[in-house]
Amino acid sequence: MRGIYKKQFSEKIYDEDARYIPAHGKLLWLLFRKLQKFHNSKEDVVASLLPKGGKYLDIGCGDGILSFKAESKFEEIFGMDIAGNRIRRAKERNQKGHFFIADLDDLLPFKDEIFDVVTCIDTLQYCFDPCRVVKEFHRILRKDGVFIIHVPNIAWFPYRIKLLFGELITPSFAQGYGWYGGVLHNFTLQTLEDFLKREGFRIIKRTGSGVFSKWRAWWLSLLSGDIIVKTTKV
Question: Number of folded domains in the chain?
């Protein structure tokens, strides 16, 4: 029952395409619109970090934006997402890829050490048990394979201000989808990196996305609203 509700919840959000208003308010959103030409999307940042390889899996692939950007770098591309409507869009966008519906809270339907590269973008915070999930990533990734993860940064400066004044931090995409929009876990740069090291990954690079992301990355833990970490399996 929990899995069915989660699937329906995710599909509803995607179908309604709620207007994006950042959790830090409308004023900064208007400023963001003015600065769009300086914006680096999370998909563009992650795509720039991808090496070339044989098999690539994008977990929580959504409607296939990242897999489409990565198409020229890999021999085979796979994508999975819990929302069927997003998988349909992914298949339309990238007809060469292999896309399927799956719940990340279940065991991944792949053999050991089968992928050269695995990405998990804006997804881990919705999983019931991140430790088990990341162990699965480690299992399906080949030795010295690349794993790239993206999560929101709970320690971002605007979030700290909201908490200081007793306000709740809510996901960016919509304010009305549940108490916390389905988010179950929060991450900071330090806690994420410590977690990944414990699970058998070596940190290669850390960065973020958004407006002026290259400059904000010099103090990532405070200035970036998200965290992107590139690792290798050890």
Answer: 1
